[in-house]
Design brief:
globular; 3 helices; Pnp Oxidase, Chain A; alpha+beta; 3-stranded antiparallel beta sheet; 35% strand; 172 residues; 8-stranded antiparallel beta sheet
């Protein structure tokens, strides 16, 4: 058996997408966007988003064009955007589709139904948002959505879940 110092399946340095590498270096807080109700719920882990203050405040996110969440957000017009904590890696992976979740990712937490969509009870900081349909358009390989913030709850300042360079990080 040979022990390698590098990942055996890594893309060679010269073949790597430099723009994707730049995006990975930016990093950011991990959020969970959820929309819908009952069996019509959908969610997606999103780290490519920002919050714009103003009157009204807005949340801007880059969503996967084939995600159930994008479909549900466009159908309902509302969503919950919740910040995940360091304890939520499993939940983040399940909603990102990178970890199996028998019965679906909504079975991994307890939920309450809000006026904007389902909220994981463990998510202490979250916003209820309403989609601005005029702002939805393709950007690169994603769909940019802009949503008006209608409700905000800022909970305890626990350790955030941060994604950078393809891995979860814990701020020191």
């Amino acid at each position: 058996m040979t022990i390698h110092t590098e990942h055996p399946f890594d893309t060679p340095e010269d073949d790597r997408d430099q723009l994707r590498r730049l995006r990975g270096h930016v990093g950011g807080a991990v959020s969970l966007w959820t929309a819908g109700e009952g069996i019509e719920r959908a969610g997606l882990t999103v780290s490519s988003f920002l919050v714009a203050t103003g009157d009204p405040g807005r949340v801007v996110g880059l969503l996967h064009p084939d995600s159930d969440l994008l479909d549900r957000l466009q159908e309902t017009g509302t969503a919950v955007v919740a910040l995940l904590g360091a304890r939520d890696e499993r939940l983040a992976d399940a909603f990102a589709g990178t970890m199996p979740a028998p019965g679906g990712p909504f079975r991994l937490a307890e939920w309450e139904q809000t006026d904007w969509g389902p909220r994981a009870l463990g998510a202490q900081t979250w916003a209820g948002v309403r989609l601005d349909p005029a702002t939805v358009h393709e950007v690169g390989w994603s769909v940019l959505v802009e949503a008006i913030v209608e409700h905000v709850v800022v909970g305890a300042d626990d350790t955030p879940l941060v994604h950078r360079r393809g891995r979860y990080q814990r701020p020191s």
